[in-house]
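Proteins fold. Shown next:

***
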Amino acid sequence: MSYLSPVYPRGPINLGRRALALPADGSVPGMPDWRWMATPGHSPGHVAFYREVDGVLLAGDAFVTTRQESVLAALAKWPLVWRPPAYYTCDWHAARESIEQLVTLKLEMAATGHGIPLYGEQLQQGLAHLLQHWDEIIPRHGRYRDRAARTDSYGVVSLPPRVFNPYYAATTVLAAAACTTWLLRRRR
C-alpha cells in the first residue's frame, strides 16, 4: 500500500455544497443521539461518531480491527484492535491521543473503516492493549514515525523528508533483477 501512496490525492476534493461543516457543539445533524469528536492522526480532519445510549462507536480509521497492511489479514479479517493503517497515518502522536480519548468512552461496539465490528470485552481489552503497547505496535521507521505531516484546509503544507528503507530498496533491486532475467530468457 505504501508503494501506491504517490497516486493518492494530495489535496482535498471539492464536494461543493454537498459537504457541510459539522456543528462545533459535537452534535450530528439529523442524528439526535449521536455526537462527533475529532480523532486526528490517521488524517488531520478525521472524526469518529459516538452514540452514548448504547455505546456504539463509528471509529473510521482512528483504529482498525484487522492488520490492514497484511493482504492475508485484510482478506481474512482476523479480528483484533489495531493501530490506524501505517500506509497513511500522518501523525502518530495525534493518533495515540485520539485513541486515549476513545478509551474513556463506555464502548460496547465499534465499527471501523477496515475489519469487522468488535464488541464488549474484546473491544475494551484490545484498546487497552493497543495503548499499553503503542510504541511497539507503531512502525519502527517511516516518513511519519517521528514527525507529522502538516496540512491546512487546502491540503498538504509540508511533509517530513522521505526515509530510506533498505528492505524496500533490496526488494526493488531483486524485483528488477527478476524481471530483467525473465525478459532476457524470454527473448532467447
Summary: The beta strands are 34-38, 47-51, 56-60, 109-112, 118-119, 150-152, 155-158. The chain has a mean pLDDT of 87.
